[in-house]
Amino acid sequence: LAARHGWRFCYAGHFNGDDANLERSLAAYRDAGGTRPLVALYAVAAPTRDAAEQLIGPLKIFRLQFAGGQSFNLASAQAAAEFARQSGASDYRIDELRPTVLADTPERVHRALDALSRRLDVDAFVVDSPVTDYAARLASAEWLGGAQSITPVQAALAAERFPSLDQNA
After folding, report:
1. DSSP 15
2. Rounded alpha-carbon distances, angstroms, from residue 124 to 3, 20, 102, 113
3. InterPro entries, alphabetically (predicted)?
4. Residue 79, SS3?
5. How sure is the predictor about 57, in pLDDT bands with cuts at 50, 70 and 90?
6. Is 39 helix (H, G, I), strand (E, B) or coil?
7. How many CA atoms lie within 13 A of 11 on its CB side?
8. What does the pLDDT look like over 21-44, one tens digit per residue?
9. pLDDT digits over 86-133, tens only?
10. Are the C-beta atoms of residues 109 and 144 closer than 8 Å to each other?
């Protein structure tokens, strides 16, 4: 549909991290005459990989899959069951998924994005953040967007502002 209308296609990798589905979707778009697609994904940067993973927390998505193949992503199993109930469906499945997140130092996240770009022939990403704390989310975005590295001073400031990020704690 996107290729037929001349639109750019963006694969929602932050909701569906299945590599085979990603590659099939990008190939279908290209085969239909689409230009270079985009890929949306979750990425988090912090002074250390452990600190980045701490920021993510227990990130889960609950996929409600109806018998006819239609699916919806919801924030909780209860929300998925309620959605199914309200739709009148009795034949459905709820799968708990843990989305893929690039969580590491800014340099390693950038390297991972570069590798994905080459592997998928994608020239741009839509980067989403699963971090709920505003200050930590902002710091992560700033590191991803501008800093190719975190200096010792930046790491110390981050540890001061966000004790949970302190790699020595």
Report:
1. T
2. 17, 20, 15, 9
3. Luciferase-like_sf
4. helix
5. confident
6. strand
7. 25
8. 899 999 999 999 888 899 999 999
9. 999 999 999 998 888 999 999 999 999 999 999 999 989 999 999 989
10. yes
Question: Do the bridges between strand 125-128 and strand 38-45 make them parallel or antiparallel, or are there none, so unpaired?
Answer: parallel
Cβ density class 85-101: b for 16+ within 10 Å, e for less:
eeeeeeebebeeeebeb
Distance CA 9, CA 73 (A): 19
Return the residue matching tokens 């920021």: 55
The topology under which CATH files domain 2-59+98-165 is TIM Barrel (3.20.20)
Q: How far apart are CA 27 and CA 34, in angstroms?
A: 9
Mean pLDDT score of the chain: 86
Yes or no: say if 158 and 46 are a contact pair by the CB < 8 Å rule.
yes
**CA–CA distance, 123 with 114 (Å, rounded to integer):** 9
